[in-house]
Design a protein that fits this description.
Helices cover about 40% and strands about 15% of the residues. A seven-stranded mixed beta sheet has the order 4-3-2-1-5-6-7. The radius of gyration is 17 Å and the shape is globular. The N and C termini lie close together (about 10 Å). The protein has ten helices and seven strands. By secondary structure, it is an alpha/beta fold.
C-alpha cells in the first residue's frame, strides 16, 4: 500500500534565508540578547522561555518598525514558489510550523499564499514590552515541555500511521520534530543536532533540492 507524505516546514532560516528573530535582535536589542540566544542553542534554556525573554527586551512601540525591517531584509529561499506548486500538484499536505512570531511571519508569507495551515507564536503589544503568547503549546507526551510552538504536538495532531512525516528545518526549534519524522531535510544548526542525536537527514541548500528528492521518493512510492 502506498504511504502518503505529509510535510511540516519551518519558516525562519528555512523558508527565509536568515533567521528573522536573530535579525530583529541584532538590529533592535541589547547585547543581552546574544547571551539568551546562545543559551537556547545550547539547550540550557527552553525555546519557550528564551524567545519570551528575547522579545521582552523590545518596546511594543517598535512593532511597525520591526515589521518594516523584516519585510525589507527577509529573503525567501530559492525554489519556494515551485515547492508550493509541487505540493499542490501532488496533493501533499503542507503545514508551516514556526517558532517565529505572527506579526512578521504573516506579512512575509502573504505574497506566496494563501496558506491554510500556519502555526506560529503570537505577539501581544498591549504592554510596554512585547509579550510572546504560545497558542500551540506542548501536549502531555512532549518530552520537552518547553517548545513554545510545539512542532511534535502539531505533528501528532495532523499525521497518522498511514502517512510518511517529512520535516524541513534549520535550527534548534526543529530538533524535537526531526526526532519524530520519517524523513528530515536539514540545514545549518539542525544538521549539527541531527548528527549529535544520530538522526538521519538530507541536507539542502534551496527548495529545488527538496523538490528533486521528493520526486525520487514519490517515484518509488515511499
Amino acid at each position: 500500500m502506498k504511504v502518503n507524505p505529509i510535510i511540516f516546514c519551518d519558516f525562519d532560516g528555512t523558508i527565509t534565508e536568515s533567521d528573522n528573530i536573530i535579525l530583529i535582535m541584532e538590529k533592535f536589542a541589547s547585547v543581552e540578547a546574544n547571551e539568551i540566544k546562545n543559551a537556547i542553542l545550547n539547550e540550557d534554556l527552553s525555546i519557550q522561555e528564551g524567545v519570551k525573554q528575547l522579545f521582552s527586551l523590545l518596546p511594543s512601540s517598535l512593532k511597525d518598525e520591526i515589521i518594516s525591517y523584516v519585510l525589507e531584509n527577509a529573503k525567501i529561499r530559492d525554489g519556494f514558489n515551485e515547492f508550493i506548486s509541487f505540493t499542490q500538484k501532488h496533493e501533499i499536505p503542507l503545514y508551516i510550523v514556526s517558532g517565529g512570531i505572527d506579526f512578521f511571519l504573516h506579512p512575509v508569507l502573504e505574497p506566496y499564499g494563501p496558506f491554510e495551515n500556519i502555526f506560529c507564536n503570537h505577539a501581544d503589544f498591549s504592554g510596554e514590552k512585547i509579550n510572546i503568547v504560545y497558542p500551540y503549546s506542548c501536549d502531555d507526551i512532549c518530552s520537552s515541555q518547553g517548545c513554545g510552538c510545539c512542532k511534535p504536538s502539531i505533528i501528532r495532531s495532523f499525521s497518522d500511521k498511514d502517512m510518511e512525516t517529512i520535516v524541513i528545518g534549520d535550527s534548534i526549534t526543529d530538533l524535537q520534530a526531526a526526532k519524530l519524522a520519517h524523513h528530515v531535510f536539514a540545514r545549518d544548526f539542525l544538521i549539527k543536532k541531527c548528527e549529535q542525536y544520530d538522526i538521519p537527514y538530507q541536507s539542502f541548500h534551496n527548495f529545488y533540492d527538496i523538490i528533486n528528492k521528493l520526486e525520487e521518493m514519490i517515484e518509488v512510492k515511499i
